[in-house]
Every structure is written in structure tokens, then in C-alpha cells.
């Protein structure tokens, strides 16, 4: 019921994008830690697994080592999918054999993609290829990947929710956009949100870190 990717770019930013037929998918499945890694925990989702993998990464383990530790000691792991990228861009994936429908995963340089209940098994690789070919901010590259998935058929059924999040040296998610439910096209709605947000993103980071150097808010009373 979900397809997604996690990624790191050359600046060290870490992020994830996700789309699903289930409501509020990003709230349950996306786990990021600035300078540590990105993890998506999906397919009959256990939200505890993302933080568990991040804890392993904080202990100095690679993506593969962290994933192996968690999957090796977790019950019902055959029901789960996990995608991991660490702070050096190393990627690892787990797709349990009891994942739903057509499922699969793919990895590339600094990126891991996966999904279940897919329209076709090629979609994770198409996401990796689209991410690798895209340029610009990490948010734009993540969006290119999920759009490629939608263009290739996405899930076997309709999708209703989506999310895109990025951490980058600030200590919080500098981008955290969600469409928790729509009967329309959540990726297109997410894209419109990103168009509004991205030009303002860095101003909000500056306001958080040092409001004395921040640009004007553009609201009454801020002259």
C-alpha cells in the first residue's frame, strides 16, 4: 500500500518521500535524524522500527549493519519493509517475504527505494533512476522520484496520502510537508505545497537560528 524512498545528497541533507493508499502515511513511516540517517518503515507498519534503526546508526553502525541488527531481533519482520540511508550515503533495504502484493526495492548512490502493492515490480528502480538523474535541492530530487513512480502506475489501487521531509544541519526538519488524505492526487498537492514552501525554507531556518539576521516576515507590524 506504499511506495517511498530515502536519500542523502552531496550537501549532507537527508530526506524521504512517501505515498500510500493509507491515511497520514508520512506521520507513521518517515524517520529522520540530522547527520545520522533516514529510515522509512512501511508495509503493515511498525513505527518503532525507524527509531530503532536510527539508534543503531547513532552508535556508529553502517546502514547495512544497523538494518541487520534490527531485522535480526524483531518479531514479524517478514511483514515489514525498511529503507535506510546513513550519513555517508550508504543504503540498505529489507523487504519481508510477507510484504503485500507486488513488492520490491532498489538502491543507488545515496538512495534506497521500495514499495508494496505496486502496479509493477520495476517502480523502485524507476524511482532510484529518477532521483539519480534529477538535480537541485534534495526536495526537488525526491519529488522527481515519486512523480516517476506515479507516472509508471504507482500502486495497484488509488493513492490518498503523501509526504516529503528533509533534515539539513538545523536540528529540525527544514522541510516537512504532508497531504494526510485526499480523494484527488496527493503527489500533485504535495508538489504545489513544495512550490510554496521551498522559496521560503531558508528564511525560516534563519529565523529559528538567529532572528536578528532574519529577513522581514512581511506581515503587519513588522516594519
Account of the protein in words:
The protein has 223 residues and is an alpha+beta fold. Helices cover 32% and strands 27% of the residues. The strands form 2 sheets. The chain has a 6-stranded antiparallel beta sheet. The protein is globular and about 60 Å long.
Average of pLDDT: 95
| Strand composition percent | 25-35%
Assembly of the depicted chains: single chain
Shape estimate = globular
Strand sequence of the main sheet, in spatial order?
A: 7-8-1-2-9-10
End-to-end separation = 49 Å
Helix content range: 25-40%
Briefly summarize what is shown.
It is built from 7 helices and 10 strands. It is α+β, with helices and mostly antiparallel strands and 223 residues long.
Layout of SSEs?
Layout: E1 2-8, E2 14-20, H1 25-29, E3 30-33, E4 37-42, H2 49-58, H3 63-72, E5 81-86, E6 91-95, E7 104-108, E8 111-116, H4 123-133, H5 138-151, E9 161-167, E10 173-179, H6 186-197, H7 201-209
Antiparallel strand pairs: 1-2, 1-8, 2-9, 3-4, 4-5, 5-6, 7-8, 9-10
List keywords for this structure.
four-stranded antiparallel beta sheet, 27% strand, 223 residues, globular, alpha+beta, single chain, six-stranded antiparallel beta sheet
